[in-house]
Amino acid sequence: NAGVTQTPKFQVLKTGQSMTLQCAQDMNHEYMSWYRQDPGMGLRLIHYSVGAGITDQGEVPNGYNVSRSTTEDFPLRLLSAAPSQTSVYFCASSYRDRGTDTQYFGPGTRLTVL
Amino acid sequence: SQQGEEDPQALSIQEGENATMNCSYKTSINNLQWYRQNSGRGLVHLILIRSNEREKHSGRLRVTLDTSKKSSSLLITASRAADTASYFCATLTGGSNYKLTFGKGTLLTVNP
Predict the structure, then answer these.
(1) Which pLDDT score, from 0 to 100, does residue B99 have?
(2) In angstroms, rounded to a whole number, what is the distance separating the alpha carbons of residues B30 and B106?
(3) Positions in chain A whose pLDDT score sits under 70
(4) Distance CA B57, CA A111 (A)
(5) Which residues of A touch B100 (CB under 8 A)?
(6) A26-35, B89-98, B101-110: which range is least confident on average?
(7) B95: three-class secondary structure by DSSP
(8) In A26-100, where do the E strands start and end?
(9) Measured between CB atoms, which of B41, B48, B104 is closest to A42?
(10) DSSP letter at A40?
(11) N or C: which end of chain A has fewer CB within 10 A?
């Protein structure tokens, strides 16, 4: 198993540009989520999904869109990048309600918005 | 606002000493999890304790959970320099509001 993969690992954008951060898992996990990590702020939940076709907002959803058309993929879209979105983004996945809710994290995407 | 809050924000100890980190949360939970993050890396799961459990052990790790106080503690015994990392608690709320939220973390430094 590859686990949770994220691409790209690094990205530099200009203000106003759009891009999609990719996340995929091969463990057939129902639950997938996106977090951003900023210094001193820990991990903040952006969006999450409890299954294909179902998504919901976390703590900091503004400026981000998600979709979940398959169990495996959960892309995060930035429609118009802003400097405040400079951060490290982590994708995670887990089973849901099976008593084993351990999250598996991807390696992260470091995004800089100029 | 974030569900979990760790205390202290930073902790520095000598190798061989024990390290204790605390986590407080606000709402009812299904379980509470602790993760470690080495500098520049992703998070790694350490231990999970369910809401009906009070204490759990895994190797040098001991986790307690007090649901009446909405708090948890992580004890690392006989610490090693390799334990230097940030430690995060995360709370899982279940049912129709199933999601995992993290605290801000405790930075542990173990000096050789």
Answers:
(1) 82
(2) 22
(3) 97-100
(4) 37
(5) 33, 45, 48, 92, 94, 101, 103
(6) B89-98
(7) helix
(8) 31-38, 42-51, 54-57, 64-66, 76-78, 87-94
(9) B104
(10) T
(11) N
